[in-house]
Amino acid sequence: MTDSDDALLPLDAVRPPASSKDTKGAPSPAPERPVARVVVDSPLPHLDRPFDYLVPDSMHETAEPGVRVRVRFAGKLVDGFLLERADESDHDGRLMPLERVVSPERVLTPEIAGLARAVADRYAGTLTDVLRLAVPPRHAKAESAEPAKQDPPSEEPAKQDLPPAEPSQTESAWNAYPTGPSFLDALRDGRAPRAVWSALPGARGWAGATAEAVRATLDGGRGAVVVVPDGKDVALADGEFGRVLGPGRHVALTADLGPAERYRRWLKVLRGQVRAVVGTRAAMFAPVADLGLVAIWDDGDDLHAERLAPYPHAREVLGLRAHRTGAAMLIGGYARTAEATQLVASGWARPIAAARTTIRALAPRVRPAGEDAELAKDQAARLARLPSLAWRALRHGLENGPVLVQVPRRGYLPALACLHCRTPARCVLPPTRRVALPPDPHTGAAMTIPGAAAGPGHLCHGPLALRGGHAAPYCRWCGRVDADWRCSSCGSPRLRAVVTGARRTAEELGRAFPSVQVRTSGRDGVLATIPAARALVVATPGAEPVAEGGYAAAVLLDGWALLGRADLRAGEEAVRRWMNAAALLRPVAELVVLGDAALPAVQALLRWDPVTHAERELGDRAELGFPPAVRMATLTGAASAVRQMLEEVRLPSDAEVLGPVPVDESGQERAMIRVRRSGGAALAAALKGASGVRAARKTPDVVKVSVDPLDLI
Question: Confidence class of residue 665 from pLDDT cuts 50, 70 and 90?
């Protein structure tokens, strides 16, 4: 500890041993284990360790490991978690006493505390940041509504009395996979199989099969945690879990529940009243006792990546949890990620996939719009947004039921350009607000934003878009309407669409099929299900509703918008979004994709072979030195701060530094650091140590540290 650290320790912890006069009026210590080790709510990385406090005799019964406490830290009352009680402290001075026990509820279990520590070390974060994600805020009314059930753990796991399987459930969904029945048998026997599951097409098949795996785990006397991307998937899985497990045998955890209901359900899991949980990414920390299975569906969805520090990914957290507890793990999806393929290639997990004959019987009939036979019939198909093949698929599909149209972009016309010279349309209005920067403390000169144009001529330059067919263009950055826009290159006031959004597509299809109902599903409102009646459903990726009986046909528009993104995962993400939409179709229904048939991503969809595409993707990344073949971290912040941290950090000997390079016009830069997979722990420890040094110095510029982020490019 440095001198600067001492100022942040509990005040009396840095004083000399107390005299008899000083101890006058001090609380008497607890008769047993009088030392409490507390993790305090402090984001500073150099203080990421437990601190010792005295347990007063009055709190001896309530100050148990796992409870919330209030302590005095750096002169302030702060929250914390009591990690453990001890007989002695390594500190020589007098310990500050606990101020109070917030609640006798032991909300932090030893398993979750250890997991949170491992996650913090894996992602170069702090234990406090992970605990904010793992333990929901207290809701006193929900906590006191039902007395806590504190049963001592038994030596043998108790098997739950589940209702008998319905006749319709006797034919297991796992029978379609050669190794599926043995996977369920291993779960029932209490073993820990680890599998990467390539699910067969079918809107509800994955939820029912996952529910069967959870039931087999409960039959074996252990608990299960299932993590899915969003609330729509939670609702689908919730219904299947209720059908397979019976009422009251599981809980669904989502942020939409509200703080009181979410905390009430979380308490049911903590108190052992239910042992099966399904939810979004926060459910990865659900305190299920005797954990036997962790499962994640569609692990390639970016919703599984936490937006708050230290930015953990649900797949990695569940993998750590399975390793630490000896639980089974199931990674499922219609497509497969390079990370899941890496687990199979290393032997950590085994693949579960159906036979090719079974896949061909259930997969849709995929046709690319740019194939040679279609181009010979329709020469304009290469340039048309909806070629004749797509129109025929829509017409024929509407004769038999609902039809799905997937549009990659939301909105009406999200990108515009000059009609004559094709120059992108940009906002030419001044900023809505100009903030005067303080003078430079060293030179006294006025400070400027790096990369920004000087003088009163500095403009917004945000991209223009349209909200509707009769609306004036508006700026997507400053939000103001620019009705008098003229092209800065040729002076023309006329605009053309560069990108067509979902609402404009729905408008065009409504005019083309006037007798058919057109429904949209996207950011403004997500439809969960639709009936089997004739309808045109226009949806953005991830918002496709489930049609009763499946869609009769589908068209995947603007394939270039997915494949042409400047993203390391562009091809993988395109395959995932296409297959998720294609899985909603009826068996052998027609699916038209607007993409070049020679591209690997389109070929994976045509053959319904995500495994080969993922193996190729993993090989390419290994050759180029990108995750998951290596471990990589990024440093993002002010240019001077990033460069200073790179100079000071003690990186592993095999580390390679790429950059830093500018990331935007505000002077932010980003550097990437790459090491072998075996050096990931050393890299995270080095970056955390460097962040701690900067925090101890009270350096004003913050550098964001992210380990294995999704957005590398």
Answer: low
For residue 168, name the pLDDT band (cuts at 50, 70, 90): very low
Q: Quote the longest CA-to-CA distance of the chain.
A: 100
Name the DSSP class of 595.
S
In contact, 590 and 365? CB cutoff 8 Å: yes
Torsion angles phi and psi, residue 264, rounded to 5: -65, -45
pLDDT of residue 89: 92
Mean pLDDT computed over every residue of the chain: 87
The SS3 call for residue 44 is: coil
Q: Tell me the DSSP string of 627-658.
A: TTSSEEEEEEEEHHHHHHHHHH----TT-EEE
Q: In Å, how far are 5, 49, 134, 212, 310 from 128, measured between CA atoms?
A: 18, 9, 10, 36, 10
Is the previous residue joined to 660 through a cis bond, with omega within 30 degrees of 0?
Answer: yes
Q: How confident is the model at residue 613 (pLDDT cuts 50, 70, 90)?
A: very high
Ordered DSSP codes for 2-24: -HHHHTTS-GGGGSPPP-TTTTT
Taking each helix axis from N to C end, the angle separating 610-624 and 570-582, rounded to the nearest 10 degrees, works out to 170
Mode of pairing for the β-strands spanning 223-227 and 194-198? unpaired
Q: How many Cα atoms are found within 13 Å in the side-chain-facing hemisphere of 530?
A: 28
- Signed CA dihedral, 662, 663, 665, 668: sign only: negative
Q: What are the DSSP calls for 308-344, one per residue?
A: STT--BHHHHHHHHHHHHT-EEEEEESS--HHHHHHH
The model's pTM is 0.87
Quote the CA–CA distance of 663 and 671 in Å, as a whole number. Answer: 10
Handedness of CA 382, 386, 390, 392 (dihedral sign): negative
Residue 569's alpha-carbon distances to 332, 334, 478, 581, 613, in angstroms, are 18, 16, 30, 18, 12
> What does residue 306 show for φ and ψ, rounded to 5 degrees?
-70, 135
Q: For residue range 518-555, what is the model confidence (pLDDT) as tens digits?
A: 999 988 788 989 999 999 999 999 999 999 999 999 99
Q: What is the pLDDT of residues 194-238, one digit of tens each?
A: 999 999 998 678 999 999 999 999 999 999 999 999 999 999 999
CB of 274 within 8 A of CB of 238? no
Q: What pLDDT does residue 646 have?
A: 95
Residue-wise pLDDT tens digits, 465-496: 888 877 888 888 888 888 888 888 888 988 88
DSSP states along 47-91: G-S-EEEE-BGGGTTT--TT-EEEEEETTEEEEEEEEEEES--S-
* Of the candidates 105, 39, 102, 109, the residue with the CA atom closest to the CA atom of residue 73: 39
Distances in Å between the Cα of 702 and the Cα atoms of 2, 18, 588, 684, 711 are: 21, 39, 54, 17, 19
The rounded distance, in Å, linking the Cα atoms of 483 and 479 is: 13
* DSSP-assigned letters across all residues of 163-218: PPPPGGGSS-GGGGSTTHHHHHHHHHTT---EEEEEPPS-TTHHHHHHHHHHHHHH
Question: What backbone torsions phi and psi does residue 368 show, to the nearest 5 degrees?
Answer: -80, 140
Contacts of 620 (CB under 8 A, 6+ apart): none
Residue-wise pLDDT for 598-611, tens only, equals 999 999 999 999 99
Print burial letters for 73-85: b (CB count within 10 Å at least 16), e (below 16): beeeeebbbbbeb
In sequence order, the 6+-apart residues with CB closer than 8 A to the CB of 260 are: 139, 141, 142
- How many Å apart are CA 225 and CA 318, to the nearest integer? 9
- Nearest Cα neighbor of 232 from 173, 303, 285, 172 is 303
Q: How far is CA 29 from CA 36, 94, 96, 233, in A?
A: 11, 12, 11, 51
Other C-beta atoms lying within 10 Å of the C-beta of residue 426: 19
Helices (H) and strands (E) in the chain, counts: 20, 28
What is the mean predicted confidence (pLDDT) over 499-517?
89
